[in-house]
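I am still getting used to backbone structure tokens and would like to learn alongside you. Label the sequence line and the structure token line clearly, so we can match residues to local backbone shapes. Go ahead whenever you are ready, and we will take it from there:
>
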Amino acid sequence: MREKHITQTLLASIVVLGLLIPIQTANAEATLREVTRDVQRKVVKIYGAGGLRGLESYQSGSLISDKGHVLTAWSYVLDSSVITVVLDDGRHFVAELAAADPRFGIALLKIDAENLPHFSLDKGVSPKVGDRILSFSNLFGIAAGDEPASVLSGYVSAITPLEARRSTFPSAYQGPVLIVDAIVNNPGAAGGVLTDQEGNFAGLLGKELRSSRNDIWLNYAIPIAQLREPIEDLLAGRSRPAIDPEKEKPLTPLTLTHLGLVLVPNVLDKTPPYVERVERDSLAETAKLQPDDLILYADGTLIPSQKALIETFSYKDRDDIVSLTVLRDGQLVELTLNELQ
């Protein structure tokens, strides 16, 4: 009789367990659907420059304020007179490129909209190796209107310093990244978001890169811990420290003529510092500057115009070593003036 009772109890337990497993699975799937839908409302599609030499004219972004601030990857797509942002509900907006920090590969767009669902960066998470993640992006440009962003599920397989290159150029950002076992390096995915299972911001999907060690494509995201401070600077309108007005200028300042560097005609108040010509056998040629290069930073200082570049150089001695960050064919290139050969 005792054995019969034990057998009935075991059978009852198995039946209950069999009922619970599908219920728990269904609950988990329902929760995942809710998280996915909530995140997708915060992900946007971005359209801009591209279409030449096989370059895609689209990428992804995410809303990070209720006032229309969009975080995305800094790339050639944004080098356009018209940047279009499409929200999850299908609304189209013309976006302004509010700020960018190429050192981290990020840019901030602004659209004229308020009360938008958005990520709270203060609630950003730092996943560990082995943690499950979700990635959201407009990979392959599949979503054009109110279609949802694509979702991939995977795990963090490694956290490591970024050692990669784009074409023949090294990546400007060399800090830690999250390597994931989901294919997040597809065209259009750049600027998308990596989240945990609860939909909290974990990282920004970077542009397509190859490992400099083994030449394989990297599926990576820059952690929010690395981005929080530069994003706050962009939102506040802060850039790298400007020139100290009390600093004295050298007797022999660095000049464009001394460098053998000719910029495009300065016809506007904020004409960008595009290189028109590099004189032969000049310091600029030795530094490997090229026509059509756009000078973005000089010694970490943002260079928004030709006037700013000339002013920055005026505080440098002719013999000073100066690091430059330029945009060349959609890639960031680091160069050095007066570097000993």
Remarks:
- Residues 2-40 form the longest helix (39 residues).
- The radius of gyration is 25 Å.
- The chain has five helices and 21 strands.
